[in-house]
Amino acid sequence: MSLPAYSQYADYLISSPSPYIKQVLINRPSRLNAFTDRMWHDLGSLFAQLSHDSSVRAVILAGCGDNLSAGLDMHEASQGDILNGGTEKDESIDGARKAVRIMRYIEEFQACVSAVERCEKPVIVILHGLSYGLAIDIACCADMRLCTSSTSFSIKEVDIGIAADLGTLSRLPKIVGSLSWAKDVCLSARPFNATEALRVGFVGEVLGTKEEAMSRAVAVAEVLVRKGPVAVRGTKALLNHAREHGVAESLRLTAVWNAAALQTGDVGEAVAAWKGKRAPRFEKL
């Protein structure tokens, strides 16, 4: 059962396995955790809430059951408008106006997925079972990626006649550092396994089972939540900025950022804790 503050998200289970850590489970196992229209809207709202929740310092994302997600729910998509951008089949709408509507729809979808990346708190995703399509988009937005040895990955969009449009094509080549490999898996939609994902750097660690991966994620998160929340927020923001910008611009932003951030009381508390040989006690952000 989700925590009361997060009970409005019908397709997600939110719990707290340890202080300052929130665990989010995609909760549609009977449909392989495939995403409906409601689910991706709720994903954006959920991660915006987690971002601003002062009781959260790290987030773990996984799926209920055996799979992270099989991607888009093709049954729902075939019944509705999701594959044509939410536009009605109205022949009176000219091509340009229809294109504008579809673009708005895609950008809204992109913003909901990107909420995982915009979250101020570190996000650890566990890829397990089927991790296809939208699961890869979401995983690319996370800060750390773990997987199980039996995970099957695939960027499936070309198999349904579209180019992946929710972030994988923009983020994956930067994550793995190989445009050739990224083009291979994106153009072919071929499945790849945990060994290959680790080899190219898409995941940082492979665990034997989902349970082992969950335990490892909690252990990593417990390290993160003991750090100063101002420092963690700034480090994540500056690393994300540096990925998209040159060194000089990144250094300038770091100077501006720390001109404010170094005024935090966390520095004094960290020094006092070091001198007193105790764990620091940082205030909520």
From TrEMBL:
Q: Which GO terms describe its cellular component?
A: mitochondrion
Biological-process GO terms, alphabetical: fatty acid beta-oxidation
Classification via InterPro entries: ClpP/crotonase-like_dom_sf, Ech1-like, Enoyl-CoA_hydra/iso, Enoyl-CoA_hydra_C
- Identify the Pfam families for this entry: ECH_1 (PF00378)
Pathway of this protein? Lipid metabolism; fatty acid beta-oxidation
This protein's UniProt keywords: Fatty acid metabolism, Isomerase, Lipid metabolism
Q: Which domain of life is it from?
A: Eukaryota
MF terms (GO), sorted A to Z? delta(3,5)-delta(2,4)-dienoyl-CoA isomerase activity
User: So what family is this one in?
Assistant: Belongs to the enoyl-CoA hydratase/isomerase family.
**What's this protein's name?**
Enoyl-CoA hydratase
What is the species of this protein?
Answer: Imshaugia aleurites
